[in-house]
Amino acid sequence: MRIDVVSIFPDYLAPLRLSLLGRAQEDGLLSVAVHDLRDFTFDRHHTVDDTPYGGGAGMVMKAEPWALALEKVRAEQSGVPGAGRAHDAGPVASRRPVLIVPSPAGAVFTQAMAYELAEEPTLAFACGRYEGIDERVLEWASEGFDVRPVSIGDYVLNGGEVAVMAMVEAIGRLVPGVVGNPESLVEESHADGLLEYPVYTKPSSWRGHEVPEILLSGNHGRIAAWRVEQQLRRTAARRPELLDGADAAPYGKAERSVLRELGYEVADGRLRRA
């Protein structure tokens, strides 16, 4: 997978060279290229912003530097195998390269979206600043990209870089080979629509707190059932909206008993709060 990021603060993205993502780049599993938007300006001050039409506070990022930067990204990505056409990753594969624009006005980024985007051969990210990017850039870019404004939460940041780092890490770790043990991807939060169960390690007794006895039993069937129960309880307590309306098919008699205790019933094959 090739990932291109355009920012006025390219050094901000340096952490993407660390840890598992850094190793993946060394091993050739990922390629991350960061472009400085100011390289696509022509005045001596490298100006990337101007006052907004219609008035108002703040500045807006100018269209032309973005167009030039994205044209370069598109040209460089065109040589990546699978780019610019439907590929064999499955039905989620895009026919055009994906351009993600971090925005509090975008669709909420989820684990499901991370899995979808991990199937793409190329991704591009546009890090806005100030009051955002001239809207015409998104309209123009849609001619060559699948443009997706995406939010990482209902709050506002100074720029898109933090959001990009979060999304690139979430997506990049799903690329085959990046995470050493692929089973760890299956058992983590949101992989199955639930929050992850609590985990423990040695010693079994620590400062008066004990590891749950069942985890010391060696009975893997009971342990698995306990973990699912803990997922349901944790999800109901912390993120109940994940259960409300969820498909009830994966849950058997034992799980449905726990769900009833937690205040959920099954109606038309879906969970709903009783």
UniProtKB/TrEMBL annotation:
S-adenosyl-L-methionine binds at G128, I152, G153, D154, Y155, V156, L157. It catalyses: guanosine(37) in tRNA + S-adenosyl-L-methionine = N(1)-methylguanosine(37) in tRNA + S-adenosyl-L-homocysteine + H(+). Gene3D superfamilies: 3.40.1280.10, tRNA(m1g37)methyltransferase, domain 2 (1.10.1270.20). Residues 1-243 form the tRNA methyltransferase TRMD/TRM10-type domain. The keyword Transferase applies. Belongs to the RNA methyltransferase TrmD family. Its EC number is 2.1.1.228. It comes from the Bacteria. Homodimer. This is tRNA (guanine-N(1)-)-methyltransferase. Its main location: cytoplasm. Pfam families: tRNA_m1G_MT. Specifically methylates guanosine-37 in various tRNAs. Keywords: Cytoplasm, Methyltransferase, S-adenosyl-L-methionine, Transferase, tRNA processing. The keyword tRNA processing applies. It is found in: Cytoplasm.
